[in-house]
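Crash report, auto-generated. Payload:
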Amino acid sequence: MASTEKISAFPYPFVENNVYRYSNNAIPLNPPIAIEVTDSYIEELNLKRGLLKMHPKRCFHSEPHTMDAQWEALDLILNQLAEYYPEKFKLVTNGGHWIFNNLHKGEKQSFTFGDPTTLDREPLDFVGRHVQEDLILMMQRDGDLFLDAGQLCFPANWSLYFDAGMSFKEIHTPIPGFQSASLDERILQFLMRIEAGSPWWRKNWSLMAGNRLDTSLETFAEWGQARKKVTKENVGELVHLRVEVQKLFRLPKSNGILFTIHTHMLPLEQFIKHTPWLEQFSSILQELPDFIADYKGISLYREVVLEYLEKELEKR
Ligand code: HEM
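Recovered output after restart:
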């Protein structure tokens, strides 16, 4: 289950500011790559496929009208895998006949682009089984965005089954303060203006007791208890910084938005080795308002983490 990674590859989520608040922190994505293949690729793919097999309803959802957008997402991702990781993936297209070769996994698939009968699964479900990212399709209509398809195996305490079909604002209702100053409306307007060929990205962060990637709302009883088990002896090993790299791509034909989420985790004992990170995160966590700490689920053990960070700072 462990899926932590090297400190050098970790996407540190904070910018200059020592204060963290919810904001539209999306920036242009350069180079415009929707996916990233890391050292944990095989391990995370196996975990994903196991979850999809055991919990298909929890991990995949699609409305019939998303089929064109699903093919566009497959097109974008398979082409990027072959372009950016040519030693691991090959894609040969001959008119509508495509052959995708996942050399890393030792799998080859031929199919006719646009013909669902030539794939064993729906296009989004197929392509999601070849990348570490969770994949969400937001469809745009009536001046709004709706979560009409997704493959989600590594949610940070939310449910695809529950959120299926919801609008952008409905999805974000549980977040305290997200409606104030019309933040949700401003982000929705920003999303609806995203243009094909100009993708965006942002990082979201949280702390988590344990290192499970599959922290679905449905299994909270299995992993949520670890929050009560954080002590000053185990905090460095048990508590992880969990960062989601989220990317947003407009799909030009269907006008949908592909939202990819790549989840990274680093135990605090690794994280604090980098002194500037230790210093900044210590200030941010100290100042973090209770309503954000509560929502992120870190209030139960925040004090233990703060004491640990302070002790480490004293040693520098
Ligand atoms: C368009 C695709 C997006 C989808 C499908 C999505 C989905 C979600 C979901 C399901 C949650 C958890 C809500 C819960 O507690 O049930 C969430 C949290 C959140 N989202 Fe989004 N989101 C999207 C885009 C964005 C964008 C573009 C922003 C900001 C620019 C954003 C900001 C946030 C924030 C701040 C949180 C709270 C996270 C935390 O404190 O850990 N989201 N989002």
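Post-recovery validation: The two ends are 33 Å apart (CA to CA).
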